[in-house]
Amino acid sequence: MNLTDDKVSILDTLDEHIPQNAWYKDVAVIGLGFVGLPLALSFSLRGCNVIGVDINKRLVEEINDGITAHKESFYDIPITDILKREIERKHFYATANISDVLDDCHNFIITVGIPIVNGEHEMEYLESACTELGKGLKQGDLVIVRSTVVPGTTEEVIKPLLESASGLKAGDDFHLAYSSERIAEGRAFQEFADMPILVAGVDEPSTTRAKELLGIVCKAEVIPASSIKVVETAKVFENVQRDVNIAMVQEFARFTEALGIDIFEVVNLANTHKRVKLLAPGPGVGGYCLPNAYYYLKPKAEQMGISLSLLELARKENDAVPQIIVDMLERALADNGKHLNGADIAVLGLAMKDYSNDARISPPLEIVNILLQKQANVKAFDPAVDGDYPYKVDDINKCISDVDAVMILAKQHEIDSSINKVLSEVPEGAVVLDTRDIRSFAEPALLSRVRYVCI
Ligand SMILES: NC(=O)c1ccc[n+]([C@@H]2O[C@H](COP(=O)([O-])OP(=O)(O)OC[C@H]3O[C@@H](n4cnc5c(N)ncnc54)[C@H](O)[C@@H]3O)[C@@H](O)[C@H]2O)c1
Fold it and tell me: Over the Cα atoms of the chain, what is R_g?
């Protein structure tokens, strides 16, 4: 562990020295992914005894060895240092076996996701987590669901599963609440602490208990809502509005390209209006949250006979962006007398968004796949994204020389700080297609060396 004394004292100040006999001393977090691991550690840092549960045995072993690929940090302290410290002081460990925790733990937070596969939501992970948890649920226990769900899921699916597996009744025998998760990857610890969150329970005591437990980590307002459905729906709306906003800005980008003006400048200037908040266009919408949001509303809307045509269209528009970006590249290469087939392309950034290690549903990966289908030669660099991609190189220098084009698809600090090197080392006149507006890191004189194209 590389913790200096000043970092140790920062972490020490977070510990609230919760007494051993407090009902909220022990917490189990079920699902140790992008949300679950930093959430579990946030409770541990505040002084809870935390057990993390995940069905992925390898992940559990790595976590118990102090290893995680996540890029989170808190007060500039990397998550791996936080993880090792919490394991060492015996405030946290992980297990793949939920039955290990059921006897002694009384507070359970579920962060298992609902994947979308071919437009359908797959409930099996969440359902099996609830069934396994239900088997050991006890009188007085508290269950808080933080997964993003199809509105209605907590009361229509999770509650019956917990009740039938436990033989207990939510409200009468155990507390059940829903609290949506709002963090952005890369800022998880900070946002767990300072982002207001919503909560609602199956009854008043469930809401009150959940609010109290969540308040150990959330130092912003924990806002009670009138029902669980309100919180579930607000969460999906929060995500879907970003999806629609980005689809709109993509359409703006096509307009500004044709008009010969810069979309990023337009967005920045429009956002000086106090009631305007345009998002940035980019190479498409990725990750676990935004592309899935529409598909969490769709089944419920169909059941109720409600049209979501605007949201459906936005989703389709966003799905189409990677192909649009490749078409732009193809046109820019053609202006240089080149074809995509056989062209050497450097791709900078594979993550689904800037400064992330998450490549789930990543538009950059989709762009690379289209390029490969079109017989382009691709070398890609992203120091944050793990994974075995045959075209990935571990050094930016291995992909930028002798290329016909460079595509900037996700910012990473090493990519930002290398932009001047990239611009000076790529062949004169090569196409540089920037979907992330990293020009602010470049020397203006270097931009004129290349055919610089912004989306
Ligand atoms: N990633 C984000 O930034 C973010 C932000 C807000 C909300 N959310 C929501 O939070 C939830 C979790 O997202 P995530 O990104 O952490 O997902 P993730 O895929 O990174 O993590 C989920 C974890 O749950 C584990 N799991 C699956 N089934 C299990 C079971 N039966 N028992 C125990 N563990 C099980 C998986 O192995 C995985 O490690 C999702 O509903 C997501 O929509 C995510």
Answer: 24
SS3 of 226, please? coil
∠ CA 448-451-363, nearest 5°, is 125
User: Ligand 1, atom 31: nearest CA belongs to which residue?
Assistant: 129
Pick the atom of ligand 1 nearest to 146's CA: 10
Q: Which atom, in ligand 1's list, is nearest to the CA of 188? A: 3
3-state SS track over 335-373? HCCCCCCCCEEEEECCCCCCCCCCCCCCHHHHHHHHHHH
Among 136-150, 166-180, 233-247, 346-360, which stretch is predicted with the lowest mean pLDDT? 346-360
Coil/strand/helix, residue 385: coil
What's the CA-to-centroid distance between 280 and ligand 1, angstroms?
26
- Residue span(s) of the chain under CATH 3.40.50.720 come to 5-226, 241-454
CB 134 within 8 A of CB 170: no
Query: 5-226 adopts what CATH topology?
Result: Rossmann fold (3.40.50)
Q: Is the pLDDT of residue 76 over 80?
A: yes
In the CATH scheme, what is the code of domain 241-454? 3.40.50.720
Amino acid at 206: S
What pLDDT is attached to residue 288? 86
